[in-house]
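Appendix B: complex inputs.
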Amino acid sequence: MTSPLLPTFARADLQFDRGEGLWLVTRDGERYLDFGAGVAVNSLGHAHPHLVEALTTQAAKVWHTSNLYRIPEGERLAQRLVDATFADRVFFTNSGAEALECAIKMARKYHSANGEPGRYRVITFEGAFHGRTLATIAAGGQAKYLEGFGPKVDGFDQVELGDDEALRAAIGPETAAILIEPIQGEGGVRVVEPAKLRALRALCDEHGLLLIFDEVQTGVGRTGKLFAHEWTGVTPDIMGIAKGIGGGFPLGACLSTEAAGKGMTASVHGTTFGGNPLAMAVGNAVLDVVLAPGFLEHVRAMGLLLKQRLAEIKDRFPSLIVEVRGEGLMLGLKMNVPNTDFIAAAQAQHLLLIGAGENTVRLLPPLIIGEAEVAEGIERIAAAAGRLEADLRGERRGAA
Ligand SMILES: *Cc1c(COP(=O)(O)O)cnc(C)c1O
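Resulting structure:
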């Protein structure tokens, strides 16, 4: 049967009817353990009672008013984000790409407002992912997303992660900002060393550049801190977030210092849906849970446990797994076999995992995961690895 959907996704033939916590259930009642969380979005799992309550309560009051009027839930969420971070200002969006669009526009406008409109170029890093709009595919710089879509949006210079010489050489009189994910997600769970981020901060200060962090995937507790950059002691001037902050409701935000936001005055930027009352109610509810005492400690403990257990699996199956990477509950397995084979083998064990660059498999379970679910996931990963290894041995024997 041909689907009416634009075939931009190679979808697994699975459809879920409902969810509860770490579990997704098909129409036939088959249960899958969700270690993907809709790509780090379902931070509190599925059908979290507090989120359901927040959304349905707001749904009975008012859904949308536009940003022509004050939205008290949004003012509250913005204040809470400001109180918890480096930021003084928040702009709400519907997605990560829009949060990054705002960040990029803000950086350009900042220099323009300072009388330097020629400073508009942004330095990004090889392997980056910042979204699918025309500007954010240019920022990400990946050929597979750029090809065939006409001239690449001007103003992005990409250097290799860790190539300090190239980085210095890329900074010119037109450079406005440096944009980086503290841990590359789509790129393959590549952790940027804290020392590197500190060096970027120093470089930005030296050259009057703005430092932009893309914490769309790493943010809102994913790595065991509210934001991943807190592990490094470095703060950005601008930060894009999304994914986890909405817990499954489309929500993103661009956070900035007062200084960095100086050019973003009335009517220079906007959004129809961004920050609507439904999204704001859910965002506040997510923060209620994530900011509660002990929650981030829980994420760190579960992350450590999962990483240790994955290291044991790697030692048991060295022919399949090369490396365990990541921080908190943003973990990756660099594979020796195609990552798609491993994901398929896990799916056969009713465990959902997600692929990423550098032939890695991502584990991004909901942050509410408990010890029993870590054990359950590890059991399924071991079973999948065992099957895959046996299949490969069989193939080799068949070929001999
Ligand atoms: C997912 C992601 C984006 C894009 O978010 P969308 O909501 O899909 O637009 C941007 N940056 C990073 C790091 C991401 O993981």
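The mean pLDDT is 97.
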